[in-house]
Write a structure and sequence with these properties.
alpha/beta; 39% helix; 173 residues; 6 strands; Glutaredoxin; globular; 6-stranded mixed beta sheet
């Protein structure tokens, strides 16, 4: 039996921890996240017309909107549980000059894993009708698109727990 002195034990423990850290290097430990970014209308238009087989769930929100923040966990849950079938995009309507000081810290603090885009278009009347003609511009608002059957559903309201999943099922069928 080998007996180690105090210094040898500490050295051995350091070596083991270093080897463990080295073996974990480069291995993802959590779901891959998208880096939040600022986009113009053409970037949002590309999201809305994305050619994919996945269902598109697009939520319009802002960091200052209490109902928006309340429903964000429902979108995150869908993103985590159905990422292979559904793309979730969270479109922030905060001001672009607040991206680094407000939006990025918000996304980080809440550990949002869905794609987060900040739409930098202050002339709301130029693009709101292009998202959906029925939209008054109020948030939260959600657009669900099924590219495979062409179904779309737009809601201008706060979603309650379970309501998002029901809407997704409706659009899938």
């Amino acid at each position: 039996m080998i007996r180690f002195t105090g210094i040898q034990k500490q050295f051995f423990l350091c070596v083991v921890l270093a080897l463990f850290a080295w073996s974990c290097e480069g291995k993802p430990t959590e779901q891959v996240t998208h880096s939040p970014k600022v986009i113009k209308w053409d970037g949002l238009e590309a999201v809305l017309s994305r050619k994919t087989e996945k269902l598109q769930v697009i939520n319009f929100w802002a960091t200052w909107c209490a109902p928006c923040i309340k429903e964000l966990p429902y979108f995150e849950e869908v993103n985590e549980t159905a990422a292979d079938k559904i793309d979730v995009t969270l479109v922030s309507l905060d001001f672009a000059d607040e991206f680094e000081k407000r939006v990025l810290p918000f996304v980080e603090k809440r550990s949002l894993r869905s794609q987060v885009l900040l739409l930098d278009e202050i002339d709301y009347n130029s693009w709101i009708d292009k998202v959906d003609p029925s939209w008054s511009g109020a948030i939260p608002a959600t657009l669900i698109i099924n590219p495979s059957n062409g179904k779309r559903k737009f809601l201008e309201k706060e979603l309650n727990e379970g309501e998002l999943n029901s809407l997704i099922e409706e659009i899938l069928n």
